[in-house]
Amino acid sequence: MDRTLHFYLEPALLDSAQAGAHPFIGRVADVARQAGLGVVFHGNGAADRAGFDPKQRAMFHMVQPWGPRGLTFRRVYHYPFWGIEPTAERWRWHVAQTSFDGARIDRREAARFARYWRERLFGADALAPRRAGFIYVPLQGRLLDHRSFQSCAPIDMLRAVLAADPRPVVAALHPKETYGPDELAALSALEAAYPRLEVTLGRMAELLAACDVVVTENSSAAFNGYFFAKPAVLFAGADFHHIALQPGRNLTDTLDAARYHAPDYDGYLWWFWQEMSINAGRPEADAKIAMAFRRGGWV
What we know:
Distance between the termini: 13 Å
Shape: globular
Helix content: 25-40%
Order of helices and strands: EHHEHEEEHHEHEHEHEHEHHEH
Number of helices: 12
Strand content: 15-25%
Radius of gyration: 21 Å
CATH class of the largest domain: Alpha Beta
Largest sheet: 6 strands, mixed
CATH architecture of the largest domain: 3-Layer(aba) Sandwich
CATH topology of the largest domain: Rossmann fold
């Protein structure tokens, strides 16, 4: 049997990996070598896929593995935190299937950890968040499509929020998404029907600092909202669902409950990143990478 780990990477990442300039890929490769595996780097174009052997141990960046022995790796929202999983679907990741128990977490350590990352990522805004009386709806892509992991299409989610709650709503388009004319027309129609709706672009940290609640399918903005102690209502599967609210049968009641929802944000952030993710800057990263290999059935 082939005793090689094959990486299939996009061009910029391939160059970085081959030059030994990507710390996390380098660390994964070192763990593989320590387990007796060779390491080979490939591109991820059509020719590479045509030559792919599904029996290979293979790693991919942020995409669904091509074969049954493949694993995908991706950053867990911010560096230096990473995940290695058999699927690119985050709502099926190991963390998503694991129960969060904050009672056993060291409170002082969790508070220190959360404050450090709160200030490092978002500065003073996150240290003194406020609630200015509006709902923040970070949008992702494919606004008109209802995909299998979603409760409804994003445009219908936004429509439901406007119908369920009288507060102003700020819906933010993702700055890296491209929206088609039909999607933009649907948003314009909602703006015309609801003058309290504002459609904007980006502005995540600013809106997290001031909103009452984050309502989204599964945007990472909701995870970032935990640093601002902002409750989240999720309309789709997510890896960070544990302390979020679900829309339920009555969205009005859910949004009202969100006013008083105060989960253990600090404990959760510590658990999600320090325990359930791979902190590439920590000594235990190698053991966690090896554990991900074992979950993938490699060693």
